[in-house]
Amino acid sequence: MMSASSAWSLGWREDDLAARFPRVIGRSERTNELRRQLAAAAGCDATVLLRGESGTGKEVAAWSIHEASERRRGPMVVVDCSAIASELIESELFGHERGAFTGALGPRAGLFETASGGTIFLDEIGELPLAMQPKLLRVLESRTVRRVGGQKNVAIDVRVVCATHRDLRAEVRAGRFREDLYFRLAVLSVELPALRARREDVPLLIEHFLQQQSASAAAVMARIARERRHELLQHAWPGNVRELRNHVERCAAFGRWVPLDGDVEPELAREEPSGEHRVAAILGVDGSKAYADEKQKWVSLFERAYLEELLRVHDDNVKAAARTAGIDRAYLYRLLHRHALR
């Protein structure tokens, strides 16, 4: 296993790398080093393991590798290994033949076949069931898949990129992840830095997120960002880039600064509005807006806050989170996609 940056020197200039990887936002040395590693990974066909805390942008890195590689004209197939039921994952990845199991009414290509000619991104690879791991290893080594219920091997031409927020070496020591699979996946290893390790990128990230807001909301948030620059730069951002993006969107939705710790803003609390106006003032309810618009804003804010906390409590384990929430895992997965949490 080697880091992508140590694979070889490509001699790219920083400006060239920034243009080549437009999804990667920032000018800090840690971000420049990340781009160098992505350039090395994009320049070959080796399997890549993306490591980093939740919210650091591992899927962005995977897309960046694909888009800068020779496979960019091929498909990019994203698979969240934590979101597929253990009894279905083999069929999802490798496909099945008619009659392979109840409900298999016809042959179906798996995601590896679908990705042939391009890249398959196996997100949350650390959640792959132990029983599936030798099957994935065989596919990686043979470059063929056998559909569930099938009798022949199907050749595939696919580049594999995977990601995890877990320490897979610790998982290997604990017996939850196969050592041979770990070494097969980590041919090139790319570490994504936490946002607290590249705080100087925060203003550029905010500017990037504001481009996705309406002009009026962006103007308000730009003013807030100038006034609260010190707090934004000093915050630890345990949720990394995902937390920063969500904070920007909350402030834009409210039209004012929302405290990072979730408490009521001190100066707002000191105003002590009386009676029925107090709750509205504290919550930032805008009576000049349509009921449906204000309600949707609050539903959306609640959903996002709840989902963030749910994932945090369950260490990003979607299956356990769905069980606690009392909702179907597929529905939870749709909610996570709706709020860009997956």
> Beta fraction of the residues?
5-15%
Structural class of the helices, strands and pairings?
alpha/beta
Strand order of the largest sheet: 1-10-2-9-6-3
- Gyration radius, in Å: 23 Å
CATH class of the largest domain: Alpha Beta
Number of domains: 2
Separation of the first and last Cα atoms: 27 Å
Backbone shape: globular
User: What order do the SSEs take from the amino end to the carboxyl end, as H and E?
Assistant: EHHEHEHEEHEHEEEHHEHHHHHHHHH
Largest sheet: 6 strands, parallel
Average predicted confidence as pLDDT = 85
Helix-residue proportion: 40-55%
Low-confidence region ranges:
5-9, 263-276
- Please tell me the CATH architecture of the largest domain by its name: 3-Layer(aba) Sandwich
What is the CATH topology of the largest domain? Rossmann fold
Number of helices: 17
β-strand number: 10
Tell me what the structure shows.
The protein is of the alpha/beta class. The protein has 2 domains: 2-193, Rossmann fold; 196-338, no CATH class. It is 48% helix and 10% strand. It is built from 17 helices and 10 strands. A 6-stranded parallel β-sheet has the order 1-10-2-9-6-3. It has a two-stranded antiparallel sheet with strand order 4-5. Helix 9 (202-210) runs antiparallel to helix 10 (215-227), helix 9 crosses helix 12 (240-254) and helix 10 (215-227) crosses helix 12 (240-254). The longest helix has 23 residues, at 291-313. The two termini are 27 Å apart. Mean pLDDT is 85; it is low at 5-9 and 263-276.
